[in-house]
Amino acid sequence: MKFIVDNWMLISIAMLSGGMLLWPILQGAAATGISPALAVQLMNREKAAVVDVSEFSEFAAGHIVGAKNIPLGELETKLPTAVKNKAMPLLLVCRTGARSGRAVAIAKKLGFSQVQTLAGGLAAWRNANLPTEKA
Predict the structure, then answer these.
(1) pLDDT digits (tens, 9 = 90+) for 76-105
(2) Which stretches of the chain drop beneath a pLDDT of 50?
């Protein structure tokens, strides 16, 4: 306890610098993904494969036109067979963008090199008045 009292300023500086080192990591986790407009460009220009990682019921209620449905829990086993070319752009989508953010790490672990997630998920897609379809 005496050490903490005697060195309170050094401890404060150490904690502040540690927080400053973590700040970019926390910022990056909050601001992941591409906008719906960039997603459309990726789909049209580079023929990106669109994979919806939502559950079957959510996918049936509405999804991006042409998207394949592979729930997040099955992604590791089914993605390599659904998208054979690991060098082609891959766009991962879910309802809000949270699950697709986790799916990016799985896809990269499987060897997919150009993986993106839709920031805001299907909700952002609909807010941009882009087309969806129901299964």
Answers:
(1) 999 999 999 999 999 999 998 889 989 999
(2) 29-31
Q: At what angle do helices 75-82 and 98-109 cross, to 10 degrees?
A: 70
Backbone angles phi, psi at 129, to 5 degrees: 60, 40
Rounded-to-integer distance, Cα 57 and Cα 60, Å: 5
Q: What is the pLDDT of residue 77?
A: 95
* CA distance linking residue 82 with residue 34, whole number of Å: 22
- Burial of residue 66 (CB within 10 Å: 0-12, 13-18, 19+) is exposed
Query: Which residues make Cβ contacts (< 8 Å) with residue 2, sequence separation at least 6?
Result: none
Q: Is 80 exposed, middle or buried (0-12, 13-18, 19+ CB in 10 A)?
A: middle
- Residue written as token pair 């879910």: 94
| pTM, two decimal places | 0.75
